[in-house]
Write a structure and sequence with these properties.
alpha+beta; four-stranded mixed sheet; about 50% helix
Amino acid sequence: MSTAASVFDPFAPGFTEDPYPHYARLRAAGPALEHPLGFWLVSRHADVAALQRSAHSVDEQHLRHLPAWKSGSAEVRKESRVMGGLSMLDQDPPDHTRLRRLVSKAFTPRSIEALQPRVEELVAQALARIAAAGTADVVAELAFPLPFTIISEMLGIPVGDHTRLRELTEIVVLVFEPFASPETQARIRAANQELFAMVRELIRWKRDNPGDDLLTALIEAEHDGDMLSEDELISQVMFLYIAGHETTVTHLASGILSLLRNPEQADRLRTETELAVNAVDELMRFDTPVHLMRRITVAPLAIGDVEIPAGSWVIGALAAANRDPDFWGADADELRLDRPTAHRNVALGAGIHHCLGAALVRMEARIVFPRFVARFPDATVDELTWNGRINLRGLSTLTVTV
């Protein structure tokens, strides 16, 4: 049987710049591949989509086979994990159900819709800055500040806290990268502890200074007498803050790059405004913001003719599934903003772990992409740099001349 290591090397030269040929080899090698470092990879659309909707766990306490990059921990304990292992990202039902129900009360479609004028204002300001400069970094001027400002304002985080929060967030998100070195793991743990303490103090301040914001709503969230504990509240705030901007930054920057590299599709978006909604899904499919997801099997899992043992760490390659020609057709590697099945991409998860902020990222992107191409029909890419990550792969800079 082929192993993941023999066909898939995320450290190979050129992987960050274009991982999709690597994903094609991974899909072709088999439905499920075992890596010698102690985990499994699933990469075909049907299998990844099924894994997302399955009842398999996200809680590391179910692990019987510890991946090698986690071997520095003798035990898998919640208190040693990012966000204390208490965020929705790490919880199974019934705890996940309870947490999501409480958080969802403060994260409604109506509240997202109410943000649209503010998003439009921030986008207009960013595009004006880019136009005035003539040459600008789209990440620094638009893709980062837009979602970062929106989630910060949603949560009611004072402006003075942003710089250090941002620095710590950029370290904590490295926990989602496979193969983290012991040194990186130590940095993550230290940043997590500091961020946890900062959010605890922020919550104490917010209790004395409530406002019309998401953090106040989370503090007050209750259902049938059930409320978030202090540590649960801190963990959900950390999760919402990180998830609320990190992946959206990647989607906005990568989406703009994809449009600039496919000018005929940018022309269509410019002239066929009805494509805006579908374009968000197709751009998310074409260059997926989060490349990998994980589940821990609670029972043996059959993928094709392969059986994955219970207690195994399974990685679903979202970006590979989103380019699977068996599902998307022979043009899976092409950007088609009118693709009728684009909404079936697996980028935002499915089942109980479907992205809570899906409506927010879609709304932000639906405003950014059409307005960018309409404002800058002759924009060209001058220079770009990738962030070097495997999972949260994205652009660190994208310099364009407009």
